[in-house]
Design brief:
mainly alpha, 8 helices, about 70% helix
């Protein structure tokens, strides 16, 4: 008998087998020299450490130019090594930044959702809220309320 749980297990099994096959194929399928891949990954690491993902209006072309590569290579490398699209990658870095800021700096908890979105580099409050929800499972306003409740409960 087919149940939602059994189809989830089958789907998960197929996805993990597909992931294994993809990793076995390796970077050769990228069609990019391993030296270039290594250099781009190192530059991405610097990009993350410097929090350059907080700038607004980032595109693959702009980031690629900053990393001294081209947009196609950058996109392929992020897809393969980060297992997500460029947009997902940037948005998740931004959300991680805001989550940490909200946890460690109470000043951020006083900001409006629009101000938080702007701090994180989002042009749109709606995209910020949806990205926040996708990453954390809750909306930013509820997250802040929970942090405030925890802080109040400690007093």
């Amino acid at each position: 008998r087919v149940t939602p749980q059994s189809t989830d297990k089958i789907s998960h099994s197929v996805k993990s087998e597909s992931a294994k096959l993809n990793s076995q194929k390796g970077e050769k399928d990228l069609g990019i020299s391993p030296d270039i891949v290594t250099k781009v990954l190192q530059e991405l690491d610097k990009f993350e450490k410097k929090q350059e993902f907080l700038k607004t209006n980032l595109t693959t072309a702009l980031v690629a130019q900053k990393l001294k590569t081209n947009a196609k290579y950058l996109s392929k490398i992020i897809n393969y090594h980060k297992q997500k699209s460029f947009t997902q990658y940037i948005n998740e870095l931004r959300i991680d930044f805001i989550v940490e800021a909200l946890k460690t700096n109470t000043r951020y908890r006083q900001y409006t959702i629009k101000a938080l979105a702007s701090e994180a580099g989002f042009n749109s409050t709606e995209v910020f809220s949806k990205s926040f929800y996708k990453k954390t499972g809750i909306y930013p306003s509820y997250f802040i309320k929970q942090l405030e409740k925890q802080a109040y409960d400690k007093v």
